[in-house]
Amino acid sequence: MNKSTLLKELFTNLSTTGAVTFSSKALVKKMLSFADFKGAKLIVELGGGDGSITQGIVERMDADAVLLVFEISQNFCTNLEKVFPQDNVHVICDSAENIDQYLDGKKADFIFSSLPLSLIPKSNRHQIYKKSKESVSDSGKFIQICYSYALKFQFANHFSEIKTSFTLKNFPPAFIMVCN
């Protein structure tokens, strides 16, 4: 799938993609800088989209690590499967609300998310927070890109420690919430 087709998918399904453009390289680099990938065995990405964050994770993760990429758009899933054919990268065309059904009782070392949480209905959003908290290891982190600082207060209902960072090097500028 070429970039123009991906952009068409982005705009056609704005309510589920929640973005006007893909994450910048600077945003991806900053987001991933909050994780020490060495020794991480299970990594989850919520909202694979065009694979910008996926690519950064794949470049940093150990060869024996497993990456589960959740995406609800079949077009994005098809593209992700072509771009990331590795045996240790699994593209899952399902809602992040079902994360627990794919972990085989394991806990993720990191959960990276670019889900458009502000656009997701409140009950579904809280299920995603709850399942993410339950699915990340005690020493792990849930790291979320968001465009509203107010979401920090929703994360506080599920995570005891939340650090925030901000970057102007993205359109639109974005917050990164690091939760554990």
From TrEMBL:
It comes from the Bacteria. This is Phospholipid N-methyltransferase. It comes from Rhodonellum ikkaensis. InterPro entries: SAM-dependent_MTases_sf. CDD domains: AdoMet_MTases.
